Amino acid sequence: MKKTSTRLADGRELVYYDLRDDTARGAADRRPLEPTVTTSEIRHDALLGDAVAVASHRQGRTYHPPADECPLCPTRGDRLSEIPEPSYDVVVFENRFPSLAGDAGRCEVVCFTSDHDASFADLTEEQARLVLDAWTDRTSELSHLPSVEQVFCFENRGAEIGVTLQHPHGQIYAYPFTTPRTATMLRSVAAHRRATGGENLFDAVLERELAGERIVLEGEHWVAFVPYAAHWPYEVHLYPRRRVPDLLALDEAARTEFPQVYLELLRRFDRIFDGPDTGAGSGRTEGGGSAGGSRTPYIAAWHQAPFGAAAASHGVERDDFALHLELFTVRRTSGKLKFLAGSESGMNVFINDVPPERAAERLREVASS
């Protein structure tokens, strides 16, 4: 992997990650951009104890542009974009409309490929490994910023999720605090260790799933399963077999196998709504999407341990946390979405329409031949 860092016209950082070591990057951003002005602010909810980012400048962000005006495609001729080069492998840059900025953290955009019509599932194993290396490098770089406590790499795909740019991309949020979801996990790990005399809760969960019927696929170094108490109709958790706190701690064997396992998992997500079990008339296109050219919408979220003393403040060591990826779709069956209604949105009590065991069975049925 070759890494090249540069600056956009408004001063934001942009980093190219290239497969070839002899790739040269030197194109300048020719756009007449003014310096980025952000108004990001973190406010704390006194009753719930969580944090809310207020970022009014995001109202003016790019919204569903036509393909020939996509800001994530490479610059070609007079069509200028966020990426000055005419092509790229993987590129990361500071978000022009960040939710978090300055002392309130940092937001970055990760473009997986210069091919506007592709998806992560279309990448080769070599390309997917480059994305993993970019996630890892950004986690390392952002963890050293004085305001950052937790780094969150994720992908939102599909208009149903709320994605406003269709180009294959993800984001990285560097929070100045430990997120509520992670804090809850840390408290659960601490409570389980006290109750069992030292057992790690993540290890116990993985051991239980390995012995059950919700396994979706297994590799030598990774395991994917539908959790016992899945919140979403189709939700898969992907764990390395060896517990590590973050992407930085993965060994080379796990890094090598990851693209094989993850790409297969994503391709299964693009097939789960085929067939009689999920409704009639859900034919597919050549690209693996559903009828009409759409693909299964999903969120893919990496959960990493917070940095610094955050874990200890919840009663555990940082190494007690287990890196894992959570992948889920908001679709519950062909043509129908899982909306968060009163119980979910009002009380955070989820109601799942699909038994986790059946979801796992379905994801095994659509394995690549």
TrEMBL record:
One of its GO terms (molecular function) is UDP-glucose:hexose-1-phosphate uridylyltransferase activity. Transmembrane segments: none annotated. Residues 198-367 form the Galactose-1-phosphate uridyl transferase C-terminal domain. Pfam families: GalP_UDP_tr_C, GalP_UDP_transf. It comes from the Bacteria. Its EC number is 2.7.7.12. The keyword Cell membrane does not apply. Its cofactor is Zn(2+). Residues 103-177 form the Galactose-1-phosphate uridyl transferase N-terminal domain. Pathway: Carbohydrate metabolism; galactose metabolism. Belongs to the galactose-1-phosphate uridylyltransferase type 1 family. NCBIfam families: galT_1. This is Galactose-1-phosphate uridylyltransferase. It comes from Streptomyces tropicalis. The lineage of its organism: Bacteria, Bacillati, Actinomycetota, Actinomycetes, Kitasatosporales.
